[in-house]
Design a protein that fits this description.
The protein is mainly alpha-helical and about 90 residues long. It has one domain. The chain contains four helices and two strands; from the N terminus they run H-H-H-H-E-E.
Length: about 90
């Protein structure tokens, strides 16, 4: 996470003489990237902790259910008896 934060900071260096001229930061741009990095790190730790106690099929099933509630869509899949087409 420290390397990611440092990379984000370095990528925002624009040049200039003062600190406000040197960096550019907006909440809707870099702010969301920082929030995503934090949440991804927390999710990885949680998955690692739960992964040692839960069955992998149960975890995959919960991922699919949560994904559906977050806006996932199964209507693009054609379900048949013998095969699955996209």
């Amino acid at each position: 996470m420290i390397i990611g934060f440092a990379g984000l900071t370095i990528s925002q260096i624009k040049g200039g003489t003062s600190l406000t001229d040197l960096f550019s930061f907006s909440f809707t741009g870099e702010g969301f990237m920082l929030i995503y990095g934090l949440l991804a790190a927390l999710a990885t730790r949680l998955a690692k902790k739960l992964g040692s106690t839960l069955n992998s099929f149960v975890m995959a099933g919960w991922n699919l259910v949560i994904g559906l509630f977050m806006g996932g869509d199964l209507s693009i899949i054609t379900w048949t008896l013998l095969e699955l087409r996209y």
